[in-house]
Amino acid sequence: MKVSIIIAVYNEARTVAALLERVWAQPLAGAVKEIIIVESNSTDGSRDIVAEFAARRAAEPVSKVRVIYEEEPRGKGHAVRQGFAAASGDILLIQDADLEYDAADYPGLLKPIIEGRTAFVLGSRHLGKERWKIRRFAHRGLQAAFMNLGGILFHGFFNALYSTRLTDPTSMYKVFRADCLDGLNFTCDRFDFDFELLGKLIRAGFTPLEVPVSYKSRGFDEGKKIRICRDPGTWVLAIVKCRFTPVTAAKQRPAGVAYSEKPATRPSS
Fold first, then answer.
1. What is the rounded CA–CA span in Å between residue 243 and residue 245?
2. Which of 164, 210, 245, 254 is the most buried (most CB within 10 A)?
3. For 227-246, what is each residue's pLDDT tens digit?
4. DSSP E strand boundaries for 59-173
């Protein structure tokens, strides 16, 4: 069984090297690993770090690394969708390029799917040690409390609309059999893709099994990219739209896609 790990990278020079090494080193019992990195033309040197990692690992047969170099950033959702299209694994796993989540949780996330107990797993931060207080920013207690409260409200809204009782709909760790995407169509490009993906998988009949995962939040001064004044409105729209509009369309996962093995030249400003 093959696991495709999709990593979207944009301006994560402070963390991406360590993250890639951890993903590479993490053993997967009962499965082989495919690492698909989608680099969105970062301006902070992340692209060079990704290229160096891919070149260093190219001669090693243990894990396969594929890199898609986008010419411009079009959002996390767009990057993850590119990764889905390139994936050849039986199981898909989404991984951010920061260090908020721990790759050591992979075995626990994959086990229920490999054992055939479910097709879809969510890694819940709220089942772990931190429970609902997942945001802890140094010297920014009010901001952390505001975001924790916002999380509760969005989770409640999602659960009410989809008749679910999920503890962590916004978790980055969404892991599922690749065939769960068959017939589904995705259009969201930014962080609203998290709700679009979850909503459409649930509407397609794949209710997720939640397992606890570790989490260490980072603040906006450390690179967090969510925009408080921009993104929440798109989340509400995605939640409502995915609940009340058709989810099926032409198959989302083509047999193959073209991708570059070498970094593209960044367009001049």
1. 6
2. 210
3. 566 677 787 899 999 999 88
4. 64-69, 91-96, 120-124
Token pair in block for residue 31: 């499965």
Kindly calculate the radius of gyration of the chain based on its CA atoms and give it in whole angstroms.
18
Amino acid at residue number 162: Y
Distance CA 186, CA 184 (A): 7
Strand locations in the chain (E): 2-9, 32-39, 64-69, 91-96, 120-124, 174-177, 209-212
Q: Number of C-alpha atoms within 13 angstroms, CB side, residue 194? A: 23
pTM of the full predicted structure? 0.82
Per-residue pLDDT tens digits for 69-96: 999 999 999 999 999 999 999 999 999 9
The residue to which tokens 């019992």 are assigned = 29
Cβ-based neighbour number of residue 55 at 10 Å: 13
Tokens of 223: 């690179």
Which pLDDT value is given to residue 266?
A: 39
The pairing of strands 174-177 and 120-124 is antiparallel
| DSSP structure class, residue 221 | G
What tokens does 122 get?
A: 């969510």
Please state, in angstroms and rounded to a whole number, the distance separating the CA atoms of residues 129 and 160: 25
Alpha-carbon span 148 to 48, nearest angstrom: 35
Q: Which domains does the chain have, with CATH numbers?
A: 2-244 (3.90.550.10)
> Beta strand pairing status for 91-96 and 2-9?
parallel
d(CA 38, CA 230): 24
- Residue 47: name the closest of 22, 72, 82, 26 by CA: 72
Residue 37 backbone dihedrals phi, psi, to 5 degrees: -105, 125
